[in-house]
Design brief:
alpha+beta, Beta-lactamase, five-stranded antiparallel sheet, three-stranded antiparallel sheet, 7 helices, 32% helix, globular
């Protein structure tokens, strides 16, 4: 792993195609949970073919327990519909729901979706694991900003519906000032659909920001060796830059990523 902080950043006005901010957009970095979007996209395409699949009941005990992000591990419900599992992944990046869904559809079809949608090599490498052994993929996912901006310029609407209630607004989206628990409707003409990724030395956020009908697809990915607070501050600064650009503001943005 690099001993210096590395960034892959891109934001594009989806209407005009104007680049709003850019730094090494093709650099592949670890992205933790971000590539769960490939799983959601695969599910959305399956539902396009047969909407009844969304009501299929999936049991939580069909996979090994997994900790960290998510709610299902804390709930009594022994089974949820496929739709509800996808909603948990979109809203709280639920690790248990992710693994249950991957157990149902398989990793290989999800990776085929990634290869089709992400020309730059972004990929979901594995299911979520509490401990990664030498025989496992070294990281859950990798990605570059260019791939995720390309995705969010023309996202699948069902995936967007699952991402709409995402509760993690701690990174780029922190600049927008929305209620992290209630922001599916426009607030002061602001809306955001996003997916974040968090791991040791990794912070990433990708998504779509709407300001009064003007939209930016964005991705800010960082791998860093030190303290997280400066990284989060810089990510929020990039969020401010993107927000100001969509509002036609002349306010200064953050300095270059280092």
């Amino acid at each position: 792993m690099s001993s210096r902080t590395e960034w892959s950043i891109l934001a594009v006005d989806t209407g005009s195609g104007e680049t709003l901010v850019e730094c090494a957009p093709d650099l592949l970095l670890p992205t933790a949970s971000v590539a769960k979007i490939f799983l959601l996209h695969h599910l959305a395409e399956l539902l396009d073919e047969d909407a009844s699949l969304g009501q299929l009941m999936l049991r939580k005990d069909c996979v090994e327990p997994v900790a960290d992000s998510g709610l299902w591990q804390h709930l009594d419900a022994p089974a949820l519909t496929l739709n509800d599992c996808a909603r948990l992944v979109g809203a709280v990046s639920d690790n248990l729901a992710t693994n249950v869904l991957l157990g149902h559809v398989g990793l290989a079809p999800v990776q085929a979706v990634a290869r089709r949608l992400a020309a730059g090599g972004s990929m979901l490498n594995d299911s979520v694991r509490d401990v990664r052994g030498p025989e496992d993929a070294p990281m859950l996912s990798i990605g570059c900003a260019a791939d995720w901006v390309a995705y969010f310029r023309t996202p699948h609407p069902t995936v967007m519906s699952w991402l709409a209630p995402s509760t993690d607004l701690s990174m780029v989206s922190a600049a927008i000032g929305l209620d992290p628990l209630a922001h599916t409707d426009p607030d002061h003409d602001l809306r955001v659909w996003s997916k974040t990724g968090t791991d040791e030395g990794v912070r990433a956020e990708v998504g779509l920001l709407d300001v009064g009908g003007r939209r930016a697809a964005y991705a800010v990915i960082c791998r860093f060796p030190g303290e997280v607070i400066p990284v989060l501050a810089q990510m929020r600064a990039y969020g401010t830059l993107i927000l100001d650009a969509l509002q036609d503001s002349n306010a200064p943005g953050p300095g270059p990523a280092r």
